[in-house]
Amino acid sequence: MGQMHLPLELCHHAADAEEKLMNHLLSPDRYNKLIRPAVNSSQLVSIELQVSLAQLISVVSSN
């Protein structure tokens, strides 16, 4: 598999943007953890996660 090299400054700005987005979406005035996409509270909610290979490599290399 080939390697891709990005300038450190570009990676730093991407991390800043990701943190700003998470803070915006999960701020207490926007996000209520009691609200669920279900008719009643006993109903299960299924979620699906997709992770790209690049994200897995990043996690492995940080450990």
Polypeptide structure, described:
The protein has 63 residues and is mainly alpha-helical. It has a domain at 8-32. Helix content is 44%, strand content 0%. It contains 2 helices and no strands. The protein has helices at 8-25, 53-62. The chain starts with 7 loop residues before the first helix and ends with a helix. The model has no long low-confidence stretch (mean pLDDT 76).
Strand content: under 5%
- What is the ordering of alpha helices and beta strands? HH
Q: What's the gyration radius in Å?
A: 17 Å
Largest β-sheet summary = none
Secondary structure tally, helices: 2
Shape: flat
Helix content: 40-55%
Mean pLDDT: 76
What's the structural blueprint in terms of helices and strands?
Blueprint: H1 8-25, H2 53-62
Task: Offer a quick outline of the entry.
It is a multi-pass membrane protein. It is found in: Synaptic cell membrane. With 63 residues, the protein is mainly α.
What distinguishing features does this structure have?
mainly alpha; 0% strand; Neur_chan_lig-bd; flat; 2 helices; Neurotransmitter-gated ion-channel ligand-binding domain-containing protein; Neur_chan_lig-bd_sf
